[in-house]
Predict the structure.
Amino acid sequence: MENSIRAAVGRVDKTIALFDVKTIDRELVDLRDLEKSNKAAAVAVAGNTQEAATTARSGVRVENVKRNLPPGIMLARYTIAKAISFKEMVPASLEK
C-alpha cells in the first residue's frame, strides 16, 4: 500500500513538473513576442541640444489633483458605505 502511494505521489510530482515546464515555455514565448514589439516601438533619444533633450524626457506628465469637496463629505461617504456593508452582512449562523 505504501509503495502504491509513493508511486502515485511520484506520478503527480512528474505531472506537476511537466505542467510547470509547459507553462513556463508558453510564458517565455509571450515574453519574447512582447520584447519584439517593444523593440519595434522603441525610438532613439535625441539629446543633441538642451531643448531636444528636454522634449525627449518629457514623455510622461504627472498631475496631482486635489479634491475640492466641502468639509464632511468624505465622512458622509464613509458612513454610507459602512451602513450599506452592515445592511448586506449575513451572519455566519444563517450561511449554508
About this structure: The chain has three helices and no strands. The mean pLDDT is 79. The first helix runs from residue 2 to 41. Residues 2-58+66-90 form one domain.
